[in-house]
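Below: protein 1.
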Amino acid sequence: MELITVKDITKVFKKKVVLLDVNLTIEKGEIYGLIGNNGAGKTTLLRILCNLLQPTGGSIEFNDGAFGSKIKIGSLIEHPALYFDMSAYQNIKAKALALGVKYSKQEIFDLLDMVGLSDTGKKSVHAFSMGMKQRLGIALALVGRPDLLILDEPINGLDPQGILEVRNLLEKIHSEHGVTMVISSHILDELAKTATRFCVINNGKLIKNCTKQQFMEECGDMQIDEYYLKLIQQAQ
């Protein structure tokens, strides 16, 4: 099932072309790994998918979700928007109120348990580790039970333990709840452990869109980073 269809999306900022004729279909149940250098257009594309930016040209079709309702999108773009003087529980409650979503006390505790923060009690977010803050940010993106989760560099700056915690969480969300995801990352080896598809963007153009299996087969004896750099060089 197609959740979102991106057709010929272009974005221009002050005469600078950031995205050019991007076409992409996001299928239900897939985890898309979005790869690209800084300035390639990844975050701009994610912001357009989240309806935080309007494209200069092209169109996006949001297809119907369950029972004909419009699909719901949760996102964590760059840094999580957290209330640092509040607890994890209070942050989720505030997000639910802001979205007009009814969440019972038990539902909030269930969400905290899902992201491994059920034991934080009244501890303020200010005292959380970076990994805990990131997992809370993902929890906030899940408020409203989205069909699609969009994450921009979710493991950026995390230590190995934090990276493992986020990876396990994303795998749990996908396996237990079937949430479709689009994840951007510079850490390709880590992304390959989660993604089911790879999309490579370079200078605003989508130059590769294939299954992870196809991507890894094309890598051959090369490391994934080496193959990615080869794709970029070939696209110049």
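Below: protein 2.
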Amino acid sequence: MGTRSIGIDAGGSLIKMAFEENRVLHFKKYPIAQMEEAMEWLKIFSADRKIILTGGKAGILKTNHFPAARIADEFTASCEGASFLLEQKNLLPQKKFLLVNVGTGTSWFTIDGDKQERILGSGVGGGTFMGLGKLLGGNKEFTDLVELSGKGTRGNVDLLVKDIYHPDQPPIPGELTASNFAKTANEATAADRIAAVSNLIAETLTLLTVQAAALQQTSSAVFIGSTIAGNNPLQESLKTYLGMSGIEPVFLPDGEFSGAIGAKMF
């Protein structure tokens, strides 16, 4: 990995950077709304460094700020960066695995040695969490919504299997969802509603991950992306649901910077 280069992943929500100082890899990120602030810092810091861009806003950054920069393919950069991190942290699976990148939306890849392929995409992801979160929980930041989701009781919003079978015992776990957001007549707090949003995302990602794993004949799934980072409620839900299908998810530390790391490697 070149020490005199900076990888920048400019996505729909965040600008993420990977760079080295004294042979130590560092990361930095800014909300996309703070692009100008990020560019001011970069122009000072990157005076004699090569810039490699990736992500949906890479073209804008190249045109407006770094005309000499190269643009790396976003999907390749994410896979290469994630593989690098997995190897560095001794977490790299020994066989084919799924890489699930939960950003503004979500992409699924298969990685098999040096081979990588994007196999699936969904509009459900961090943008869904932020959008529905603000509609149902107020105009709050990501960390506030994550905290709310951990305090809420989704059973006050979602119709659960045990609700349908009450007072009898259900034939499947009663805490599973029978219908998302079906208890609209109930009094629910903002935390309850955000917990239900987080659960809806977890269930959707689980469903698609399990189907992709079956088609690709693997039981290994590595999750990266800003929506996963520091989001313990979402991680716990994914662990529970995926575990029911025999998939043990890995939540890659610093995985949200995989695209920036991969760009730096180009």
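The two ends are 8 Å apart (CA to CA).
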